[in-house]
Design brief:
about 350 residues, 13 strands, Rossmann fold, about 35% helix, alpha/beta, about 15% strand, seven-stranded parallel beta sheet, 2 domains, six-stranded parallel beta sheet
C-alpha cells in the first residue's frame, strides 16, 4: 500500500530541501502533498504537478503517514511520523547563552535525519539525554542534485563568486560589504551570483537587487544548486550555506565570521578582503586539505542518494524498528500557539 508523505513548509528554503525527497517518494510510487504554514512562502515557486493542501482540515483529511519538516516546529495534531530533515547544515551560530541553534531540541520530532558523523554524534548524545526520538545518519537531501550525474553546465569562462549573507544583524555583513562588492563588479571581469536571506532587511535586499546586470545574477533560494556548480568560490559572513558550498571542495572566503575554522579563509579587515578574494580566485585549490577534512566530518556523502537514505530510515520506523524509548512531551504551549495560528481546535 502506498505511503502518504506531507511536506510541511514555512519558508522558501524548504523547496530545495524537500524536492529531492519528493522525487524519491514519487519514483517509488508513494503519495506526496505540500502544506504551507504562514505567509512567508512564495507560492509561485510551486510546480504545476505539485499537490498543495490549502488548509489544515485538508491536511488532517489527507492523513499522512509521515510529515517531513525542514523547519523547527510541527503540530502534534497532524497525523504521522514527524521527521526533521533540517533547513541547513550545522553552522557555528549560537544563542547568546552559547547554545548552537542546530542542536536545540523542541520535543516535536520522532526522527532526526542527520547529515554526517559530527552531527550524528551530537544528536545521539541528545537522544540518550531525552529518549523520545531516534537518529539516523542519511546525508542531506538538498545536496543530492549537486552530486547527481553531471548535466550540461555553463561554459562560462569568467571567474565567478557566489555571495551569500545571513539575515541576523548580529551576524550579517551585507551592509558593510555592499560598497566593496559594487566597486568590484565595476572593476573586475568576473561574474557574481548573489543570494540574500529572505528575512534580511528589505532596504538591504533592494540595494543588492539594483546591482543586477550582465555581471550579476540574483539567485532565488530554489536555484542554489545550479549556481553552486558554476561558482569558483564563495564569499560569506556567518551562515550554514558556507558548508553547503564546501561540500564541492571549493574555497570559501569569509568576512568577520563569528567563528573562524581551518576550512575557511577568514578576513577580519575590510581593506584586505579584495586582495584575498583575488588570490583565492587565482588558486583553485586554496585550503583543499582542510576543506576535505572538514567535509568528511559534516557531510561525507557524494553519491546523491541522501533522499533515499531518509526514506529507508523512515521505512524502518514505520515497520516498528528503531522506535524511541519514550513518548514525546505534550508541548502544550507550542501546540496551542500552532492551533491558534492554523485555526484548528478539533480534538
Amino acid at each position: 500500500m502506498a505511503k502518504k508523505f506531507l511536506l510541511y513548509v514555512s519558508q522558501d528554503y524548504s523547496f530545495a530541501v524537500l524536492r529531492p525527497i519528493q522525487k524519491a517518494i514519487l519514483a517509488r510510487g508513494d503519495q506526496c502533498a505540500w502544506f504551507v504554514e504562514g505567509d512567508e512562502v512564495t507560492t509561485a515557486f510551486f510546480a504545476s504537478f505539485e499537490r498543495r493542501l490549502d488548509d489544515i482540515k485538508s491536511v488532517i483529511d489527507f492523513n499522512p503517514d509521515v510529515v517531513l519538516v525542514p523547519g523547527n516546529v510541527v503540530p502534534d495534531f497532524i497525523p504521522g511520523l514527524k521527521v526533521q530533515v533540517f533547513h541547513g547544515l550545522p553552522s557555528r551560530k549560537t544563542k547568546k547563552n552559547g547554545q548552537l541553534y542546530h542542536y536545540i531540541i523542541r520535543g516535536m520530532f520522532d526522527l532526526y535525519c542527520t547529515q554526517g558523523p559530527e552531527s550524528t554524534q551530537k544528536f545521539n548524545n541528545l537522544k540518550r539525554q531525552y529518549g523520545y526520538f531516534e537518529v539516523a545518519e542519511t546525508g542531506w537531501s538538498k545536496l543530492d542534485p549537486i552530486f547527481e550525474a553531471a548535466s550540461a553546465e555553463s561554459e562560462q569562462k569568467q571567474k565567478s563568486i557566489f555571495f551569500a549573507s545571513t539575515f541576523s544583524p548580529r551576524f550579517s555583513k551585507a551592509e558593510i560589504l555592499y560598497p566593496l562588492i559594487t566597486r568590484m563588479v565595476k572593476e573586475h571581469d568576473f561574474h557574481w551570483f548573489i543570494t540574500l536571506h529572505p528575512k534580511m532587511n528589505h532596504e538591504t535586499v533592494e540595494r543588492y537587487h539594483s546591482l543586477a546586470s550582465d555581471k550579476v545574477t540574483l539567485v532565488q533560494p530554489t536555484e542554489f544548486t545550479e549556481y553552486f556548480k558554476r561558482a569558483d568560490m564563495m564569499l560569506c559572513d556567518t551562515s550554514s550555506i558556507i558548508y553547503e558550498f564546501l561540500t564541492q571542495i571549493k574555497p570559501v572566503v569569509t568576512f568577520q565570521t563569528e567563528k573562524d575554522e581551518p576550512c575557511l579563509v577568514n578576513v577580519e579587515q575590510l581593506n584586505l578582503l579584495e586582495k584575498k578574494i583575488l588570490e583565492v580566485l587565482q588558486e583553485s585549490h586554496t585550503n583543499r586539505k582542510n576543506i576535505l577534512e572538514s567535509v568528511s566530518r559534516f557531510h561525507p556523502y557524494r553519491d546523491g542518494k541522501s533522499s533515499e537514505r531518509v526514506l529507508s530510515a523512515i521505512d524502518k520506523m514505520l515497520a516498528g524498528e528503531n522506535l524511541p524509548a519514550k513518548k514525546k512531551p505534550k508541548n502544550f504551549l507550542r501546540n496551542l500557539k500552532l492551533r491558534h495560528k492554523l485555526g484548528y481546535w478539533k480534538i
